[in-house]
Amino acid sequence: MTPLWLKVWWQNFGTGKEPRLLAIWCKDRLMGLAPLMVENNEAHLMGNPDVCDYLDFIVSDGSVPVFFDTLIRFLKKQDIVRLNLGPIREDSIAYKHFMETARQRKYEVHCQVEDVSYEMFLPESWDEYLQLLAGKQRHEVRRKFRRLYESSHVDFHPVENRNAEKNALNIFLELFKKNRSDKAAFMTDRMAAYFQSLAEAMEEAHMLRLFLLKLGDVCAAAVFGVDDGSTLYLYNNSYDDQFSALSVGVLSKALTIKYAIQNRRKRYDFLKGAESYKHHMGGKPIKLYRCQIDLNRDRA
After folding, report:
1. Measured between alpha carbons, how far is 250 from 263 in angstroms, rounded to an integer?
2. Confidence of residue 299 (pLDDT cuts 50, 70, 90)
3. Which residues contact 143 (CB under 8 A, 6 or more apart)?
4. pTM exceeding the 0.85 threshold for the entire prediction
């Protein structure tokens, strides 16, 4: 989560919480950043699992123990009784290093797997990517694409004009209403406002990637992606359920993988969720944890 993203999240969902955006220094050297929020004497990483796939601290190499001690000392002075961290990746600073340091300091730590995220490193070509898939899945991808292209004229493209992006976002949001009932219920007016704010912020940072899949003159699917120049993140997608027989949902995602490969991205992040297509399309699982550190209890 970038600072820009967290700002958008806070503006839309921060009501009732107190921000604690902490920078920890050692003399003139910045050791790390802790984007926290406080509610009922409990500190959380800023964000929530509904729209934030995973969170973390930013800490320079070798600084975790001092960063941890300084942060905990500050939080205890603020009468914070618990540090609640999640969702955090199994390879994150928060899980891999912070929890270990907390246990070494004899704090009581509770961690449990909350969800899973999927990602993959990308080869240099689409053909190489297809060869990485299991034989059955490779056959299925080719079969589904063949059926799609036989059905109609197919146009898939990223929307790069700013005015066109606004229209594409409206299409993306509208398709949610034509999607599964659970996705339609997710896209409340408040959530739509968040997506609009996020799209504007990511566009200003040149990170927004909105993709449209059109069959003839009809938009059948849309993908909301974020691109940091190295990784393409699949943030969300929507499609018209009347085209579900043509697998437009999964194929629009596959086409974003093709786009990422063609544009020399190193990694593709499917983000949070255990949907089977992520595994079938080559994603590797990353466990996401929820961890609590009780600041008023230790094992000493």
Report:
1. 20
2. low
3. none
4. yes
> Using alpha carbons only, how large is the chain's radius of gyration in Å?
21
Token couple for 264: 């020399």
Could you give the number of structural domains in the chain? 2
What are the two backbone dihedrals, phi and then psi, of residue 73, each rounded to the nearest 5 degrees? Answer: -60, -45
Average pLDDT over residues 231-254: 96
Domain membership of residue 198 (yes or no) is yes
Nearest alpha-carbon partner for 265 in 220, 213, 224, 229? 229
**Residue 202 resides in a domain:** yes
Kindly tell me if the per-residue pLDDT of 55 is higher than 70.
yes
Taken as a whole, the chain contains a residue count of 300
Residue whose C-alpha is closest to residue 98's, from 69, 125, 122, 119: 69
**What is the domain-level CATH number for residue 139?**
3.40.630.30
Same domain, 135 and 258: yes
Which domain does 107 fall in, by range?
3-114+287-298
Q: Is the peptide bond before 65 cis (omega within 30 degrees of 0)?
A: no
